[in-house]
Structure formats: structure tokens, C-alpha cells
Design brief:
Elements: E1 35-37, E2 44-53, H1 60-73, E3 77-84, H2 89-98, E4 105-109, H3 110-118, H4 125-128, H5 131-135, H6 139-142, E5 146-147, E6 150-151, E7 154-155, E8 162-166, H7 167-172, H8 184-198, E9 201-203, H9 210-214, H10 232-246, H11 257-265, E10 269-274, H12 277-285, H13 287-290, E11 293-297, E12 306-308, E13 311-314, H14 322-332, H15 335-345, H16 352-355, H17 358-361, H18 367-376, E14 382-384, H19 392-409, H20 413-427
Parallel strand pairs: 2-3, 2-4, 9-10, 12-14
Antiparallel strand pairs: 1-2, 4-13, 5-6, 7-13, 8-10, 8-11
């Protein structure tokens, strides 16, 4: 991509918005953050505070065993696991950092990891990991939190979109479900044929900023200083989508996730790019449609990549126990532990060896099993959607809002892109 597009990927630009940690703050080594007596011959243990997001109590057994295994191998370390709900993490992080009591190992999404990285508030794993340790992770996912030669996070569990198809509608349109569309262009062609032959919409379209990156179109300049999407190429792409909307190939009112489920469940649309939870939604809403569903790898745009939604493990620079924190972060995200977590959490791993486990390649023939295996084989093409700037959320929302104004409300393409360009440049300080 022309501006580090393959590294401009994050989940989360529309998900977990939490504020970055300030590297200048230190940790309190006199409380649970410091040395604690083990009770055995007064041997002091280093207490490593580990934060996760909304994983208790569902995964208590997994993490209790994980921690016990680590402590058995590292008798000088005690892991203090704390879990916070999504909407409480922001204030908790800010409060602890301001009080000089930063956690040592934290579960964060890609967007926040990158925002914190811009503040130099995280340990640089490129300095802490050996070449072999770094190579354990899929390069496209690991690089999602690399900026200026520094790696600010270890990728943990992830997810990739799958193309779900209504087999009956696809066959009725004269298409072969055993040879599904592999590119966005083929997806458009399938969509047109489905509309023509069945009257149903072809597929559900995502009206988000990341769609530009999927097509290898400019987003920001290489130095992240200015907007770069107000171009004839982007105009042409937007106009192509407008034509698809006009021709009824894709529906308009599908921004809301529940609306997407409704369209697919009522067989008003033949295909949907979504993730595994979509299966349960359809199974509950329309069991008969669930029985017609097929899962195939998601088609790729001109960039040739698939965007993952990744959760990461980071070590705040303010930790008082960097050595132990880094070691535990590597342990949590190693291949064996990622496989075990995926088995109980229905997620995908971010390590190369994990993906080779038979659990991901073999399935029982159910829709759920097929969805798991077809998404797992795409991990080598996965990248996380992020923008390596502190104001990533505002940039993404501005561009997404502009695209939605065009697609949903018929706003003038050139004028709207020009306005969005000006707004993004102001956000970036220009």
C-alpha cells in the first residue's frame, strides 16, 4: 500500500476506546505491585499485576490454571490477576497511572496499544524479544502495533471475517457454492447475478473507513501528517459502490448489526461478511435459514489482506518489574496457551505454530466447524486495522461518517470528501 497501508490496520477503530498510559508515571512497589512474602522461608516474590477485559468469570478455570502453571515454573513470581469490564478500564487505567500504581501486564486492543505507543508509554518488545520469539507471531498481526521500529504489543487472540452464504439463494442464482468468490470484484459479480436471478440483495456492505484500505486506496500520507483520501481513485471507488446501491445489489440500511441479522434471517440478502457470533444469531432467529448457511473464506480487496480484530498483551513502560512482566506476557501468548484458549473461547490464535494445530484445520462438518477452519487458513494474510496516531478514533469516525453521508443520504461525493479531508487535517493538527 502507498502509505504503509498494510500497517494501518486496527479493530478497533470502532471498538474499545481507552486512553493511553503516561510512561513518566512509576509503579508503587510497596503494595501488591512490589515484593510479597511467599510464606516459605521468607522468600520474597515479585508480584506482577495482570489485567484482562471482561474475561471473568467465564474463563476463570483457564486463567487460574495458566497462572498456576506459570508460578510453578517461576516460584519467585506471583501473578495478581484482575479483570475489569469494558466500560471501566479507561478510568481505572488513568487512576492507577496517576497514582503511580501501573499494572504490569495489560490486555488491550490494537487501537489503544498504538495510541499508547505514540506516547512511548509501553515497553518495546522489539528490544525485549529474541528473533525466534518475535517470529512466533504472524507477521501481519505482530506488525499492527509496530511504529518507528518499535513493537508495542504481543498479539493474543484474534478473529477474522467469514463469508456466510445462503446456499439456496446462491444455487437459485445459477452460481456454484463450491467455487465461491475470492475477490471483492468477484463478490460484486455474484451480487449482481443474485439480484438479477432471485430478487434478493447480493451481500451486506460495510460502510466504514477501512474499506478504502481493503482496496489499497490512500488513507493518510506515509508520515501520518495529512489526509490522503480525497483523490480521483477514491471517488471512482465510492461511485462504484453508489451504483451497486442504486442497482439493489447491496442494501442501504444495514449499519446496525441487528439489522444485518434481520436481512439474512429473512432471506432478503444472500451473503454476509461476518464473524462466528453471527452463526448463533441466525440459528436463534431463523433455524431454517441456519440450515441453509455455508461458510467460506472472505473475499479480499486489491490490498490482498483480511482484517483481524485482535486483542493484545502489553507491558506499560511504568512497570517496576519489566523482566518478569515481559516473560509473563510471552507465556500468556505462546503457541500452546493460545491453542488452549482458542478451544474454549472460539477465537483464533496469533501464533504460527498454534494455527497448525489440528483443532483449527479439522472440523466436524458443522457450520461452526467449517467457519473456524476457513478463517484459520486466512491467518497468514491477516492484519489488524489501525492508524498509528493518537487521534485514530477521530480520524476513522470522520471518514466513516463522510462515506455514510454519501451512501445513505446521497451527499455529493467530491464535496463530502473535501470537507472530510479538511476535518481530518484539523484533527491531525494542520
Amino acid at each position: 500500500m502507498s502509505f504503509k497501508g498494510r500497517r494501518l490496520i486496527s479493530l478497533l477503530l470502532a471498538s474499545m476506546m481507552m486512553v493511553g498510559l503516561l510512561a513518566a508515571c512509576g509503579s508503587d512497589s510497596s503494595s501488591s505491585k512490589g515484593a510479597a512474602s511467599s510464606g516459605n522461608n521468607d522468600v520474597e516474590k515479585v508480584s506482577v499485576e495482570f489485567w484482562t477485559i471482561s474475561l471473568q468469570p467465564t474463563f476463570n478455570d483457564y486463567f487460574n490454571k495458566l497462572i498456576a502453571d506459570y508460578e510453578a515454573k517461576n516460584p519467585n513470581v506471583k501473578i495478581d490477576w484482575k479483570d475489569y469490564p469494558y466500560d471501566a478500564v479507561l478510568n481505572k487505567l488513568m487512576t492507577n497511572i496517576a497514582g503511580g500504581n501501573a499494572p504490569d501486564v495489560v490486555n488491550l486492543n490494537t487501537e489503544l496499544a498504538n495510541q499508547m505507543g505514540t506516547k512511548d508509554a509501553l515497553v518495546d518488545f522489539n528490544q525485549e524479544l529474541t528473533a525466534d520469539q518475535k517470529a512466533a507471531y504472524f507477521p501481519g498481526i505482530y506488525s499492527s502495533t509496530e511504529m518507528n521500529g518499535k513493537g508495542f504489543a504481543l498479539p493474543w487472540y484474534t478473529g477474522l471475517p467469514v463469508l456466510f452464504m445462503n446456499k439456496d439463494l446462491v444455487v437459485k442464482a445459477g452460481l456454484n457454492p463450491d467455487n465461491p468468490p475470492k475477490t471483492k470484484q468477484e463478490l460484486n459479480e455474484w451480487g449482481r447475478q443474485i439480484k438479477e436471478k432471485t430478487g434478493a440483495y447480493g451481500y451486506i456492505f460495510t460502510m466504514e473507513a477501512r474499506t478504502l484500505l481493503e482496496e489499497n486506496l490512500p488513507f493518510l500520507t506515509e508520515d501520518y501528517k495529512q489526509a490522503a483520501f480525497n483523490t480521483p481513485e477514491v471517488e471512482a471507488y465510492v461511485n462504484e459502490n453508489l451504483q451497486l446501491l442504486k442497482d439493489g445489489v447491496i442494501p442501504k440500511d444495514i449499519i446496525n448489526y441487528d439489522k444485518q441479522v434481520q436481512y439474512f434471517a429473512s432471506e432478503q440478502v444472500a451473503m454476509s461478511l461476518s464473524s462466528s457470533p453471527f452463526i448463533n444469531k441466525i440459528k436463534t432467529a431463523a433455524p431454517d435459514v441456519y440450515n441453509k448457511m455455508l461458510a467460506v473464506p472472505s473475499p479480499v480487496g486489491k490490498a490482498g489482506i483480511r482484517y483481524s480484530n485482535t486483542m493484545n498483551i502489553v507491558v506499560p513502560a511504568a512497570t517496576s518489574h519489566k523482566k518478569e512482566a515481559v516473560d509473563f506476557a510471552v507465556f500468556v501468548t505462546n503457541a500452546a496457551n493460545q491453542v488452549e484458549f482458542s478451544k474454549i473461547a472460539n477465537t483464533l490464535p496469533s501464533t504460527v505454530e498454534s494455527a497448525k494445530d489440528p483443532f483449527f484445520s479439522e472440523n466436524d462438518g458443522t457450520l461452526e466447524g467449517v467457519a473456524k477452519s476457513v478463517s484459520a487458513v486466512s491467518l497468514d494474510k491477516a492484519e489488524d486495522f489501525y492508524i498509528g496516531v493518537e487521534s485514530a478514533k477521530d480520524v476513522n469516525q470522520t471518514i466513516t461518517k463522510a462515506l455514510q453521508e454519501i451512501y445513505l443520504n446521497g451527499a455529493d461525493v467530491k464535496k463530502t470528501l473535501t470537507t472530510a479531508e479538511s476535518d481530518v487535517n484539523k484533527i491531525l493538527g494542520n
